[in-house]
Amino acid sequence: MPTTFPGLGVTEARAILQQTDKIIKSFPEVQHVFGKIGRAETATDPAPMDMIETTIMLKPEGEWPAVDIKDADGKIIAHRHRTPDELSDAMNAAIQFPGLNNAWTMPIKTRIDMLATGIKTPVGIKIAGPDLAELERVAAEVEAVVKAVPGTLSAFAERTMAATTLSSTSTAMPSPVTASTSPMSRTCWKSPWAACR
Q1: What H or E segment, with its residue span, contains residue 153?
Q2: Beta carbons of 4 and 13 less than 8 angstroms apart
Q3: Is the pTM of this model over 0.85?
C-alpha cells in the first residue's frame, strides 16, 4: 500500500497506480492485482487521495515457479521457490518510485488499523501540537530517525502542509443551478471547474 505526498493530481495518481499494478502483475507468483487510489463512496473508507491500496491475489504456493534468489550484493545464492517474505521484499524493491512509500499488510488489517487509529501501518507515531509548520518539521526529523532503526521496512511522515488548494474570489454571485440526477434534486452554484453532484 504505497503512500504519496499530498497534492497528487488525479492524472498522476492514475499513472502511478497503473505502473505499480503492472510491476506487481509481472511477478510469476501473482494471479490478480487490483489497485485503488483515493476514497470510495462509502463512510467506511478513510483513504485519502494520496494513498494507494493494492489488493494482490497470489497463486497457490504449489504453483509458484522456482526463481533465482539473490543476496544483498545481487549474487545468485539459490534457485528455488520464494518464501512469502522474499516475495514481499522483491515486490518492495521493484516498486521504488520517488515520493512513494510502501507498506505491506493484509487488507483487512489495514482497514481495521485505519478505522481504529487513523494510521495506515501497524506501527505509527502521532505528534500533536498547535503549530502545523513545527509539527511537520518534527515529523520529518522523526521519519529520518525511524528509517535508521534496524528492521524498519519504511517510514513516512505525512506532509499536512503540502496539500494544493485553490482560492477564488468573485465580485458577482454565480447563478444557482439545480441538478436532478436522482429522485432527490440538489441546488449548487455553477462553477467553471466543478459540476454539481
Answers
A1: none
A2: yes
A3: no
